[in-house]
Amino acid sequence: MFRRAFIIAAALAPFSSEAPAYAADPSNEFLANLVGPLYRRGESFACFSRQYDAAHLTAHPRQQVTFVKALVTARFQASTLTPASSSYAYQVSLAFKFHDRAETLTAVAECGDGTPKDSRRGGAHCAGPGDGGSHLALDGRQAVVLTIPGGADLWMPGPIDKRHETIKNPFGPDDGVFRLVRTELKECEDLAFDRQKPLRPHEP
After folding, report:
1. Could you tell me what percentage of the chain is helix, strand and coil, using 3-state DSSP and rounding each to the nearest 5?
2. Contact 73, 189 (CB under 8 A)
């Protein structure tokens, strides 16, 4: 299930899969750089994370986030009534750790097929987290930049129907921009709440 608003910048290496892949047209180039080859069946995944070291946090004393990770889940949404309107959509599941909190807090963004459209140069606009939306942009071959300009309310981790109360905007003044690097999918498996098996780059 997809929700809310964002933009991330990223350029990434492709993945292999048994299912046939389709060449990305210009409107899908951004997503292809996030998850690799695009498929008409199943879901594709990618994981990004950042652990902030003591030197960074000392240089940014108003930053509250000490760790952040993002699981990108992409799928093709076919339209039987108007095939030309079929498109790829993707969800970004986020987890944050804060230096003054023991618990991990989460958020979700729903991306793809929005206005303005995704582009390799301009990045992606998504719905959530936060009322002001967020932004994703490409940074080299292995990194994305996530911008949450107005902060956002977060939740305890878990399926939507089992989440705890909302945590009102725990971000600090220096928590608006996060540069994340691609990492192994297993680091993001705890964000795939509805899956009972290890993640692979593509699940047919």
Report:
1. 15, 35, 50
2. no
Q: Which amino acid is at 47?
A: C
Residue type, 180: L
Q: How far apart are CA 172 and CA 61, in angstroms?
A: 9
Task: Output the pTM of the full model.
Answer: 0.84
Q: Residues 87-134: pLDDT tens digits?
A: 888 999 999 999 989 999 999 998 887 777 889 899 998 999 998 889
| Token representation of residue 139 | 């940074």
Where are any strands of DSSP class E within 99-176? 105-111, 124-127, 134-139, 143-147
Give CA–CA dist 94/106, Å, rounded.
Answer: 5
13-17, 61-65, 69-73, 178-182: segment of lowest average pLDDT: 13-17
Tell me how far apart the alpha carbons of residues 152 and 168 are, in angstroms, rounded to a whole number.
7
8-10 and 43-51 strand pairing: unpaired
Q: What are the boundaries of each domain within the chain?
A: 8-192
